[in-house]
Each structure stands twice: as C-alpha cells, then as structure tokens.
Amino acid sequence: MDRLGLGYASFREQKPGLVYCSVSAYGQSGPRAGEGGFDLTIQAAAGVMSVTGEPDGAPVKCGVPLADFASGLYGAFAIASALARVRAGGAGAHIDVPMYGCTLGIAALQTSEYFGTGRSPAKLGSAHPRNAPYQAFQAADGYFAIAAGNQKLWLDVVRVVALPALAQDARFATTRDRAANQAALKILLEERFATAGVAHWIAAFNAAGVPHARINDYAAALDDPQVAHMEWVRPLTLPGGHQTRTFASPLRFDGLGLPIRRDPPALGEHNAAVRARYQPGGMDAEQDLL
Fold first, then answer.
1. Among 267, 158, 166, which Cα is nearest to 208's?
2. Structural domains in the chain?
3. What are the residue numbers of the active site?
4. 214-242 pLDDT per residue, tens
5. Share of the chain above pLDDT 70, in %
C-alpha cells in the first residue's frame, strides 16, 4: 500500500482521525514482515497443527480457517475501539494485525501450558490436557461429546453410566487425577457407552445436566432448531440474481438479530458512491453505502 501511495503515512497528516488497519501474515515490522502467508501456513507456524489431530497421526490443520477469522475479529475489535477513541476527541491510529500473533493470541490454553511446564503441548485428539471426561466418545452407533468440566459434573457422569466404583477410584478422584489418567478412563466409559446408541446417551446426559453434543456435520448443525429460532440463516441474492442463503451475524442486540443491509456487490458496483464520499456533500453517499 505504501508503494501505491495508499499507505497510512500518505493520509495521516491531512486526516488525523483516520483509523487504518493493516492485516498481514507476520506484521508491519520485524524480521518476517516481508513474508506472505495463508491460513494453512499460519496454522503451521503458530503451533495449531502441532496440537490438532490424533496423537499418532500426521499434522493436520483445523478444518475451520481459524487464523483467518481470528485475525479478522481482532482487527474488527481494534477498529471499533479506535473509532470510539476518535469520536471521543482522540487521534486515529494505524492498527497492525499480524495473523501469526493473533493465532498465538487465541492459543492461551496451549501457551499457558508451555509457560507453566516448559514443555510444548502435544496432540490429544478431542481430549483436553487438564480435564476429563472432556472429549468425544464412541457409543454403539456413533460418536458424541461430553464435557464434565468440574467435580459435580464428573459425579453426574458417574451416575448416568451407573458405575459408582469410578467415584471411589483414586485414579479419578480429582480433575488433575482424571486428566492424568484419561486414557484409562476413556476405556472404562466407552465399555459402558457401547451398550447403547448416541440418542440414548444424549438424552441421559441432557436429563442429568451434563454438557453434551452430537458430532454434527454442517448440514445437521445448520438444521438445529436453535438456528431457526435465532434466525441466523438468511436469504441472499448474489450478483447476477442467483438466490442462495448465508449465515448472518450470530449476535443479538436487545433481543434482535442484525439485518443483512446489502447483498454482495457486483464488481465496481459501489465505485461511484465511494468516490462521491470525498466530494462536497458526500456524507449522503456514505449513508447510502451503509
């Protein structure tokens, strides 16, 4: 952008309230500032691929492009914060959003483990390094997940599976003990889970108040009645008139979801309105774009 004359330095003097956000692979300065990157390479560099997958499996990336989206969310929050400062009479800012740093930033569970132990976290499949039972389990006809994140929930699990001896087993006495012996615990629980199907165990854990979930594909996840209730899936018209659907903002303000104000534009559709923003009386054009 600097090479094209469109960098922050080209505008900051004439517009001190400018909020300018730069998203890049490694940041605007430093030894790796000139390197490019995509979600895959950032997941690899930032450690995500070292903790994703089964312990004996090859490196795999997270199926969701979390480096891309985490960086976008960090950027959006930073922009909103900087705009609040400008509207309060403060200066603008050049916001530097490095995907590498953002991806490390959302890995607090793993970085805290490293800082606390000096050891790099390892792949655990769906398991948790410091909690159990807290992972996916196999039932007679498929898989489901439970998250017994405290002692009460652990005892609720014991009651659901009707194995009272587990509550007296020293290997599983505390959260720390269960995490250290979760491989053995998984074997014992899956022996019981194999006696019934996923629907049975989902219903049982729901009745007990233990957080649980089916392992949904995206078709099932989007078909959940909660999605319909929240009106998250909305119709959308693409350039050329093609009708499709999209997942809208999941947020609600005062009980109301946020509308989709505009369909995606065709190439160049808004050029005139954007240019008009900087002409006399251009605020009307800006409002039109909103």
1. 158
2. 8-117 (3.40.50.10540), 134-215 (3.30.1540.10), 225-289 (no CATH)
3. 128
4. 999 999 999 999 999 999 999 999 999 99
5. 96
